[in-house]
Each structure stands twice: as structure tokens, then as C-alpha cells.
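Researcher: Next entry: MD-2-related lipid-recognition domain-containing protein (Anopheles albimanus).
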Amino acid sequence: MKRGTSVTVNAEFTSNGASTDSVLKHEAHFVLNGVKTKATITPTTCDSAICPLKGELGLLFSADIYVNPELPPINGKLRWELRNKLGETLLCYQLPQFELSVKIELYCLVPARRRSGTDGTLPTAVDVPGCKSTPCELPKGHDAKVLVDFTASKQLTTLRPEVRASFGGLTVPFVLPNDRQDACKWLIGAQCPLSPQEDVTYELQLPVLSSYPSLSLTVELKLLDQSNDIVTCFQLAANVV
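Model: Predicted structure:
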């Protein structure tokens, strides 16, 4: 991306059942060396009856982003989120490098929702490789990988994952193996302690045993810090197959 210019971004997406009313708002940030800078988008909101438009593969949204000339000339990321008036994330994706010819990499392919009654915030992105819509399929006899992007709200010296599974009216702990109970060891390109406002990716590896029954369930993840406070939390609909 060239500084001092505007770049048009077009995206086609499906809503996965979320409301697609005519009021859509979006927000984008440049991420440079772990520092987020809010980007200027035109238009900043979509509030007409013809938006979003219909594309060949689904709903279509287009906007221009201004590349501030004061940004340093270094490689970075651009993260973009599109939400409806209920605050539900319809689309989020990432440009992995500041290059005009770069291909858009879908970054948030599955909708995650906040667990009722928790104080934690939703991740900035959740990616289950191979899953483009919920419920995600979790094959027996394999580990299910879930990539969770979040921003540290304070200094984090420890991180502990707490996973639960809900099915048939029951909620039970999903006990991770010992080598996966320290989330600091499963950060991608980062390590604890984490600094405030640092953008981080956590890789959750869920063992799906061959002995598990085939069923539909909701997987809930909470990341807890050194004070046992919730750093981030979400729920994901899935099927064990």
C-alpha cells in the first residue's frame, strides 16, 4: 500500500444466519510492530436499502481506506471488521502485508459469540482452519485447531485456558493434556509476559478422541490471567463427526 493514497477493498461474504439489515458499520486498524492505529474508511457506515449488494458468491461490500502518509514505511497488517446494528461481526479479514498486490486473507471465518454472564471480551478474530461456517466439524481421532486473536488489556504474565463443552443440556469441562494447559507456550510469534495493547494469536489444540460419540455441541473457551480474570472468551458451535 502506498502512503498518501486511498485503496479500494471489495469483499464478498455470507452472514451465517446473522442479521444483514441495511445498517452496517465497519472499523479497520493498521497493526505495525504490535501497535494498532485506526484507519480512515469511506464510507464509514452503510445505511441505505441497497446495502449490502448482492455479489456472485454472496453479499458484497466495498469501501475505500486511506493510507496515512505519516505511517512508517514498514511491513504490517490491516485488520477490518464489519458489524450489523446488533454488534454482531459479519465479516473480519486481514491483509497480511502492506502491498498493493496482496491477496486478502480471510481471517475470521466463523462467528464467535460471547458467553452470557462473563466479563471477558470477544477475540478480535477466531479461525478454525477448514471451517467456513458454523457448526464446525470436529473429526474424531484428530486434534481440532482453533486460532484465537486477542489484544492484551494489561500486562499478562500467565495465561491459562479453560475449555467447556455443552450438549444435551449438560456442560462439562474439556480437560486439555498437561502440555497444553499453559497458554503462554501456545502463543504464535509472542511470549509471556505480554504488554498492554499487544496483539496476540493463541493456538488452541483440542483433542477429539475416537471414542467420543457423534453429537452437536458448543465449545466454550476462556483465557484466564495471573489474577484469574478473564482475558477473552467465546463460544463456538461444532459437530463431532
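Model: Note for the record: The chain has two domains: 5-96, 125-240.
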